[in-house]
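Example 9 (inverse folding). The structure is encoded as follows.
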C-alpha cells in the first residue's frame, strides 16, 4: 500500500488551525518546501510581510548564530501575539554541528516564539532534529512522481487563472518539464501569460512556449517517431528550422537521442550512472526509460546507421542538408 505523503497531515492541520511552535520542512521537493513555508507563515502571521515587520524574521545560511537566535526567540513580540522566525538552509543541520544549546532551548522555547526551519537535507539522527520532532513537527517533502497527482495540481493552477488545461497539454508538459514542481510551476506561469486572451491551454501552446531547448524539441521528434506520427515530427523539425537551427546540428541531436536510447535499451549499468555519463538532465531519466520501452535495441541501431548514412550523403554533396534530414525523418517515422 502506498504511503500517504507527510504533507497531507500538515495540510490537514493548517486547515483546522492547529499549529506547532517548531516546524522543520525538509526533503528534495523545492516547491513544496517553499509553498508550506509560506503557508505556515501566513497562517501564523496573517497579512504580515517580510519587509517592515518587527515580529517576522528571515535568516539564510549563517546569518545568525545559535546564541543570537536564542536571544531573539526570548524577546517578547512587539505589540503582537507571536514572533515568527524563519531559518533556511542554515549550518545548524549539517553533519558535525550538534548545536547543543539550540537543541536544549527548543525542548522548552518561549511560548510566544514560532520557528520554521527549511532545509533540503537534515540528518534525522542529530539532537536538533530529534528535539524538533519531540516538540514540533518534522515534515519530509519528497518529490511527487505520480503523474495523476501532478495533472490535478496543474489543472488547479490553470483554473485559478480562469483557464482549462487540456489533458494532452498537461501530458506533454510533464513529458518535457519532468516532475520537478518548481519547474512545472514556472512553465505553467509562462503558459498562462501566453494564453492570456484564451480560456484554454492546449498541447500546441506547450510546444510553442515550453520547449525552447533544441534538444527537447528533438526528443519530441523521436517521441513522435516512436508513435509513427509523421505530421508532429515534421512540425517540430520546421520549428527548429524557424529558430535557425542548422540542419546538420539537428541531425547530430537526432543521432544523440538514439545513442542515449540504445544505452537504455541495452541496460548498460545503473540508470543514474548512464544519465551522468551522457549528460542527461535531471527529470529526463524517466522520459528516456519510457521512450526506450517503445523503441527496441534493433530499431535504435538501425536509426543510428541511417543517421550516419545521411551525414555522409550530405557531406559528400549527394543530397542537400535539409532534404537529406527530411528524407531521414520520413523513413524513421514510416
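The amino acid assigned to each position is listed next.
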Amino acid at each position: 500500500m502506498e504511503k500517504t505523503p507527510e504533507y497531507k497531515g500538515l495540510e490537514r492541520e493548517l486547515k483546522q488551525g492547529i499549529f506547532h511552535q517548531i516546524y522543520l520542512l525538509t526533503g528534495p521537493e523545492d516547491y513544496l518546501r517553499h509553498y508550506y513555508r509560506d503557508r505556515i507563515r501566513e497562517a501564523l502571521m496573517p497579512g504580515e510581510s517580510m519587509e517592515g515587520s518587527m515580529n517576522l524574521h528571515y535568516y539564510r545560511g549563517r546569518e545568525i548564530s545559535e546564541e543570537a537566535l536564542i536571544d531573539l526567540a526570548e524577546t517578547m513580540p512587539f505589540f503582537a501575539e507571536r514572533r515568527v522566525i524563519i531559518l533556511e538552509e542554515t549550518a545548524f543541520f549539517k553533519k558535525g554541528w550538534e548545536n547543543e544549546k539550540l537543541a536544549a532551548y527548543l525542548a522548552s522555547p518561549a511560548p510566544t516564539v514560532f520557528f520554521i526551519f527549511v532545509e533540503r537535507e537534515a540528518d534525522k539522527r542529530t539532537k536538533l532534529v530529534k528535539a524538533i520532532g519531540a516538540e514540533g513537527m518534522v515534515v519530509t517533502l519528497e518529490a511527487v512522481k505520480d503523474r495523476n497527482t501532478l495533472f490535478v495540481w496543474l489543472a488547479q493552477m490553470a483554473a485559478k487563472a480562469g483557464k482549462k488545461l487540456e489533458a494532452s497539454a498537461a501530458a506533454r508538459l510533464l513529458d518535457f518539464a519532468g516532475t520537478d514542481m518548481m519547474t512545472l510551476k514556472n512553465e505553467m506561469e509562462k503558459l498562462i501569460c501566453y494564453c492570456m486572451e484564451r480560456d484554454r491551454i492546449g498541447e500546441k501552446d506547450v510546444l510553442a512556449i515550453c520547449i525552447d531547448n533544441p534538444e527537447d524539441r528533438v526528443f519530441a521528434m523521436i517521441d513522435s517517431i516512436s508513435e509513427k506520427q509523421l505530421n508532429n515530427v515534421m512540425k517540430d523539425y520546421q520549428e527548429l528550422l524557424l529558430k535557425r537551427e542548422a540542419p546538420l546540428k539537428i541531425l547530430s541531436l537526432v543521432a544523440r537521442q538514439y545513442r542515449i536510447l540504445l544505452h537504455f535499451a541495452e541496460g548498460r549499468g545503473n540508470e543514474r550512472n548512464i544519465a551522468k555519463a551522457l549528460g542527461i538532465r535531471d527529470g529526463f531519466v524517466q522520459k528516456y526509460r519510457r521512450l526506450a520501452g517503445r523503441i527496441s535495441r534493433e530499431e535504435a541501431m538501425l536509426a543510428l546507421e541511417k543517421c550516419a548514412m545521411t551525414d555522409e550523403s550530405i557531406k559528400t554533396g549527394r543530397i542537400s542538408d535539409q532534404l537529406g534530414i527530411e528524407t531521414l525523418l520520413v523513413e524513421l517515422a514510416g
